[in-house]
Amino acid sequence: MKYKISNLTELQISALREVVNIGVGNAVTSLSKMISKEVRIEVPGLKVELIEKVPEVAGGADTIVSCVIMEVSGDIDGYIMMMLSEESAKTICTTITNEEDTDIMTPLNQSIIEEVAHILAGSYVSSLSDFLRLNIKISPPMQTFDMLGAIIDHILIEMSTKAENALLFDTLFTIEGHEMDGIFLTLFDPDSMDVILERIDTMI
Amino acid sequence: MIIVGMADSAVVKKPGKLTTLGLGSCVGISLYDKSTGVGGMVHIMLPSIEQARSKENTAKFADTGIPALLDGMVDIGAYKHRTTAKIAGGASMFSFNSNTQLNIGERNVAATKQVLKELKIPIIAQDTGENYGRTIILDTENGELTVKSARKGIKTY
């Protein structure tokens, strides 16, 4: 990799953060339209972590979450994940189906959560590719409800064969009127960060 | 309770407890010598250090992490020939995973078994494979390994 993560300039860091912010912002607008509720996001946190530390940083290896994973490929490689607490996943399902007492593991609810995440990631990725003029694709979503560490460890294993560190953006979002929140996690390998930074450098 | 992170290991004497959280495709190996009450745990990510890009952290790999763990236990008093193993993890979380990492869980379990066989450490319990995450706790008071999961309850080996 060309850019050393520890040597990034303030400007590059804000640019990276802004890129993710635009992406997540668009995703959240889609979510907001879909469920007709206001959704707020926080400015994404950017972290560079040893791959082994990612589960802890993302919220704890044994935290039980409903997680949807999509693989990002093309000019940049990585993963986009949406993690929701059980309550938050239920809120999304009930808002869409209007049913009380949802079991989030029913096939219908699983596919609702998958589709919601897919739509969100779709708008995220298309805004990234428009902004950076990169060719980026996302895989179909994979959803499960389990321990965070267990869900993402095969991804970390795969990344660890290529890199020591992962670039991690976590964005917290909250939905108006509900005690719910979720995390949008974006993981890029360091080579992809180079690609993004090169694009940013040509723009500024 | 000592928390063993991903690609990490630790040893402890009775009455200490060791735990590692959220094992998916990774494998948690818990070793125990009943005669001295010495226990150890390692959370491996990959089968072998051979093809690894970075060989710094030996606890990341089955073929280096397990022997190092055993050495660490012997250092604090365990007898190698009395040590037994209990293993957990190696799940395949997504059945429709399309990439080459398809069987990383299985490969980790196979490598773990091979390494333990070479070290002549018998595996007296295992809870591996399938598609769910596991958190394991070793109690050096009695050598019991508790396996917790989000969807399949708690088991004790």
Please give the count of helices of chain A.
6
Helix content of chain A: 40-55%
Helical content band of chain B: 10-25%
Q: From N to C, what is the helix and strand string of chain B?
A: EEEEEHEHEEEE
- Please give the number of β-strands of chain A: 8
Q: From N to C, what is the helix and strand string of chain A?
A: HEEHEEHHEEHEEH
Shape of chain B: globular
Query: Which architecture of chain A per CATH?
Result: 3-Layer(aba) Sandwich
The N- to C-terminal Cα distance of chain B equals 18 Å
Any overview of this molecule?
The complex is a heterodimer of chains A (204) and B (157). With 204 residues, chain A is an alpha+beta fold. Chain A has a single domain (5-202), classed as Chemotaxis protein chec (3-Layer(aba) Sandwich), CATH 3.40.1550. Chain A is 47% helix and 27% strand. Chain A has helices at residues 10-35, 54-57, 86-97, 107-132, 148-160, 190-203, and strands at residues 39-41, 45-50, 64-74, 78-84, 136-138, 142-147, 165-175, 181-188. In chain A, strands 1, 2, 3, 4, 5, 6, 7 and 8 form an eight-stranded antiparallel sheet that branches. In chain A, strand 3 and strand 4 form a beta hairpin. In chain A, helix 1 (10-35) crosses helix 4. The two termini of chain A are 21 Å apart. By secondary structure, chain B is α+β, with helices and mostly antiparallel strands. Chain B has one domain (2-156): 60s Ribosomal Protein L30, Chain: A. Chain B is built from two helices and ten strands. In chain B, strands 1-3-8-9-10 form a five-stranded mixed sheet, with no helix packed on it. In chain B, helix 1 (62-75) packs across helix 2. The longest helix of chain B is centred in the C-terminal third of the chain and has 15 residues, at 104-118. Chain B is globular. Chain B starts with a strand and ends with a strand. The mean pLDDT of chain B is 91. Classes of the chains: A alpha+beta (204), B alpha+beta (157). The A-B interface holds A 52-53, 55-56, 60-64, 69, 71, 139, 142, 144-154, 156-158, 160-164 and B 5-8, 21-26, 45-46, 51-54, 57, 60, 91-94, 96-99, 101, 104-105, 131-135, 149-151.
